[in-house]
Amino acid sequence: MALALFRRRSPLGGPRGGAGLVLPLPAGAGGVSRTVTDPLGHPLGGADVTVTSTESQRIAAQGTTDPYGMFSAMLPPGNYSMMITAEGLQPHRESVDIVPDAMLPMADVRMESAPQLELPPPGIWLFDPPHTAIRFIAKHVGMANVHGRFTRFDGGIRVEHEMERSSVEVRIDASSITTGNKTRDNHLRSADFLDVENFPYLHFASNRFIYRGGTKWTVQGSLTMHGVSRTVGLDTTYLGAVNGGYGEELRCAALAKAELHREDYTLNWRSMLARGIAVVGPTIKLELDVQAMYRSHDTPTPPE
Fold this sequence. Notes:
Layout: E1 4-6, E2 30-37, E3 48-53, E4 59-64, E5 70-75, E6 78-85, E7 92-98, E8 102-103, E9 107-110, E10 123-127, E11 133-139, E12 145-150, E13 153-159, E14 167-173, E15 177-178, H1 182-189, E16 201-213, E17 216-225, E18 228-244, E19 249-261, H2 269-274, E20 283-294
């Protein structure tokens, strides 16, 4: 694991090669630094950097570049793989050999523009349940995270010639919630939470696709849960379209995330906490890892 992680600008105007970057190295540790720039050569802040041990395949250091495009880490000696990623740019990967008691010379990494992903052709795309996941993360009484998912759902995407006019709809069987704990799952299905007897489905229907640049979109729509509808914006990353799968079907994929507030849909969280039944916290992170298969331009918009 990393002994330390730094993101700072050099306090000294030393020569290139890292002489101006001063990092205190623990005995036996080594260091690596990179200055990351965009395709125009400007400092690129906010790029994601992950350093992985080649031997153990474990992440040894992880962070983002500072406003000056700099990233530095101190690591045990060994061989590492460094991956640098940023929205709209091609990922950069390199091998790094860390030696004890030495800071490797500073090096520049100039990121290149990524090729634009071709949008899926117009028509109806049905979700493929075996390759689609609807997951959520919530706090367990303010402590550890609870990870869960819904196992039964149907839906799809209608892609229009103008992508902004496209739509997506999904219906989720509320009783299919699972967190790996039977007692908790039964409680989540009860009237304290989802109340599946009275509200058997969660339903999302979009009303707007908003382009954010690169592969990023916001899919805005209405989420109905527990009999209450609220506007939700899904932060969506389009992952591309390929011919693949068992029948070489045309498929597209996307990853969408949102943050929900349980008080918008269910009983008051504070009153539930006072009653000793708040097994999950008030904020829930929702993630949809979607793979959809192309059908035809005249297929009815799912679900029926």
